[in-house]
Amino acid sequence: MVICVEEVSASLVREYLSRKGLKRTIACMDEEHPRTQSSINNRSHLRQVLHIEDLYRANKVQSSPLRTLLEIIVKHRIEGHKDVMMACEGEESDSLQSASIISSVSLSPAGTPSPMNEINSEHSTVSFVSGDHIKLRPQDKGASPNARVLLSLDGERFMKHSETGSWLNAPADENGQSKMASRHDNNRLTMSESEKKPPVNEVIQRSRPSRIRRGMMAGPIASTLQASTKQRQTQKVVTPQLLLRKQEEHRKSRDGLSGSSLEQKVFEKCLSDATERVKSLEREGQSRNYRKIVKSKTQPNVRDLSVLVLDDVDDELPEFSKMSIENTATAASSHTVRPMDQHTASELKSVLLGSSLKCFTVEWRNQGFTFSETHDLRYGMVQKKGGPCGVLASIQAFVLKKLLFENMDSSNTRLQRLRPTNATRRKCLVLAVAEVLWRASEEKQATVAINSGRMLFTPSGHYTSEGVLEKISCFTVDSIEDLQLLLEQNIEQFETGELGCLLLTISAVLSRSIDKLKEDMDVATTALIGAHGYCTQELVNLLLVGRAVSNAFDGDVELDSGNGNSTLLKGIKAPCNIGLLSLFEHYNIFKVGDYLKNPLLPIWVVCSESHFSVLFGLQEELLTNQDKGEEFDLYYYDGLANQQEEIRLTVCSVGKSALSCQDADLIPPLELCIRTRWKDAFVSWNDTEPIL
Question: Considering the entire predicted model, what is its pTM?
Answer without folding.
Answer: 0.56
